[in-house]
Amino acid sequence: MKKFITLATLFAFTIASHSQSLSYQDLALLFSRDDGNGTARFNSMSGAFGALGGDISSININPAGVAVFNNSMFSGSLNTRETDIQSTFYGNTLNNQNQIFNLSQAGAVLVFDSAYKSNWSKFAIGLNYRLTTDFENNFNIAGNSGVPTFRDFPLDNNTPTIDYNISDEQRFSNIYKGEVSEFNIAFSSVHNNNLYVGAGLNFYSLDFSQQSNLIELNNDGNGNTLDARLYQENFTTGTGISLNAGFIYKANQNFRFGLSYQTPSWFTEMLEETNIVNNDGFFGDTEITVSENPNSIYDNTAGNNFPSTRLIYRLKTPSKLTASAALVFGKNGLFSVDYTSRNYSNMNLSGDDFSQENQFFQNDLRNTHAVNLGTEWRFNRLSIRGGYKFEQDPLKTALDSDNLEGYSLGAGYNFGNFKLDFSYSDNNRTTFYDIYPQFSNQINTADLNIDNRVFTATFSINL
User: Fold this and answer.
1) Burial category of 223 from C-beta neighbours within 10 Å (exposed 0-12, middle 13-18, buried 19 and up)
2) What's this model's pTM, rounded to 2 decimal places?
3) pLDDT tens, 279-320?
4) Is 54 helix (H, G, I), strand (E, B) or coil?
5) Per-position b or e across 257-286, b if 16+ CB within 10 A of its CB
6) Taking the C-alpha atoms of 429, 58, 182 and 323 in order, what is their torsion angle to the nearest 10 degrees?
């Protein structure tokens, strides 16, 4: 049994199998996600900067790229995200729209020329804030599975009690809030003007909440109806750290390649507070009414009885290995490609008995492959950019449509001492949501089709 800091006497080990909210294995995957936010230049080339550098956001891919800068610079970015989530449940489709505005990036690079005669001619320090993952999203699901799960009224005094065994409808609403943000510090230097090496520290701050509401409408076939509502919430905070290191080698004026490695992110103290606890046999705040006795309402939180629980645990996310190459045609243009491998089967939850979740990681998740392609072409002070990205879904049983795929476009203008850059990116994937995990053999999951559109603007100034 998990060791909870308990605010009520509970059997909390049954949480995952009696909850329409995300399980711990789902949360671990969600917290391991990276939205790829960066500067507008970085986003417009789909983040293919492992062998390029020269952009503050490349610090997340390969810290060696910090020394590619010729001078010190500051940049800040704002983005707006529009997300459409289409849900389908037993033939019923709903469209959900979200629009979010964020400060997605702010950072600076400080470049120092060597004061001594040495093959190490330049040293640079990079400092950057980045919005790693933006959780903000709402969606609704509705349909009729034909399977009633709330069949009894707890206050029923009839003998025998009425069996509400005919399903009329299920409605589900879900709200995600919060983010994972990170602060990066990188150190980089160049040897003989062709070998760039760098290392960095990454500090993470996680703030997440999920609030879900399930409504189920049933009847007994004789005109009596039952309306049930189950509300669940989860609030999680945590801090983490990772390290990364890499190099970029200029083989000649036109070709360069790089390699970088980022350790797992270690979240050493994840604090969860939730109402998903056994309260009178229901896992969450529950209210049930029936047409036979409209003045009698069952409410397991009546009398200020709001049980909740807290859990402290640890999370290790997958490490990341990135190989990169780029073709550079002087100041005219370039092509760049990054290949990234992440082994999700090495994820780990600890701090208590997470044996089932860790077994799931080992048996059901895989080593994923991701490809990022980018290009940039310059016309005097104007730059035109484009990119493409592909990332496998971690689940071994994932459909091809569950893989993330997207494209990006952008442009920038160099005014001399400062630059303005803009980008537009669009990516999409499919996934599912299990409203009734405890009835997985009887009730299908809901299908979700997710489309993200992000517009980013970046201001950069020479220091």
Assistant:
1) exposed
2) 0.90
3) 888 999 999 999 988 889 999 988 767 788 999 999 999 999
4) coil
5) bbbbebbbbbbeebebbbbbbbbeebbbbb
6) 60
